[in-house]
Amino acid sequence: MRLRNLRLVSAVVLLAAACATAPAPDPRIRLSRLIDEQVALSPFDHALWGIHVEEEDGTVVYSRNGALLMIPASNRKLFTTALVESCFALDSTIPTELLIEGEVGGGVLVGNVIVKGWGDPSFAGRYDEGVREVRLAPFPEGLRARGIERVLGSVLGDGSAFDRDVLHGTWQFEDLGTPWQTPVDALAFNENVVGVFFRMPECGRPEITTDPPFVRAVADIDCGERKRLILASDATNTVSVTGTLEGPAERTEIELVSIRDASLYAAQGIHDLLTGNGIAIENPPRAGTASRSTERVALIESPPLAELLATVMKPSQNLYADAMLKRVGGGGPEPASFERALEIERLFLTGEVGIDPTEFSFADGSGLSVRNLVTPRAIVKLLRWMDAPPRRGANAVIFAIPGEQEGTLRRRLPGLERTMRGKTGTLTGVNALSGILTGSGGNVRYFSVVVNHHAAGSSRATAIIDAIVHEIARF
Hints:
Layout: H1 2-21, H2 27-39, E1 48-55, E2 60-64, H3 76-87, E3 95-105, E4 108-117, H4 132-136, H5 138-145, E5 150-151, E6 155-158, E7 193-202, E8 205-211, E9 217-223, E10 228-233, E11 239-245, E12 249-258, H6 262-276, E13 280-281, E14 286-287, E15 295-301, H7 305-313, H8 318-328, H9 338-353, E16 360-361, E17 373-374, H10 376-386, H11 389-396, E18 420-427, E19 430-438, E20 444-452, H12 458-472
Helix pairs in contact: 2-12, 3-8, 7-8, 8-9
């Protein structure tokens, strides 16, 4: 009996010792299992997933197709933002000028007023909401200071600092006219969109108004079983609304429509501003180019570049991203172009950031093009560059953050408000989320999650992506 008890005690001691020295479960195994389970959910088991996660020291925590080229959607804006930061100071601004050409005498300008843009996508835009007249006041004031009360010519909108490739050739046709696909010109006004308000108190008799009100609109709407409307803008920036609407409809419907000609739109806006301030203008506004003999009478600067980049990253504003990219390709004798900007970007990404040139191929700056391709591993490498100590402080405030008032993550990833900064991406069949996570001990993880070629809705895709990111954040 004593021998049996001794053997039992020894076995218990050995078992306890074995348990005491057994290694803790590897959290990377749990993460791998969770991700594998999530991406196997139907119908996403038929989609293409690219996922890459790295620790701060470079250790790869998880990778699935990390070196595979994927369509990034608006994750493309990460690269645009980094490029712009490398080319321009974050406290720099972008001017929009008011010029005159011709002779001035007796309060009359025998010539034209020119509003010339240099690539500010925010001119008379969201930052001026509610205070547009105040922000644009230097223009009428500049003309009065020059003694001009009447213009015998026109207001010209001059966007010649950019080339005429204002709608990228790889953008999808069905997005034409939408507020997320607008002309990328050196001159912008109201972010190149117009608000359209319409109602139909009586079938076949629609009432339609616009914001800004100087935009002309026509409507051919009748009562139908459901809303089927086509909104478009023509070469004169006249908006048309056609189709059927459940009616009679007393409630006002609201839509945003992209204008066709950005330079003309700005000229129309400044024409309306000047005439509203008592300056008579003989001829209608038009797009045009300033002559060599001009005089500047006023200048309006954009907000600092850091604020513009926050608009690129947080609400994921496409016009801002594409205008910023195109502006990088300026500065020479030729107008700024996507082509030149992409050449500069390639040199930056391969030389400064150190990304393999076979791991990216870009077409535009916003991510609207399905020809943008990049690997999740390259996205993570870029995030590391953006989060390096010289750039960390400035970049920390431009990423989207869960729960913030403005941004694409405002309703996502509760619990990560203090520990995550990221960038989303959405196209038909494409969803992405990449970012930087801070763990409980202060360590950092970099991640990129991209899904392509899925046939489910974005809400289902983002639910899976968010579940994956919550698990990546457990460290």
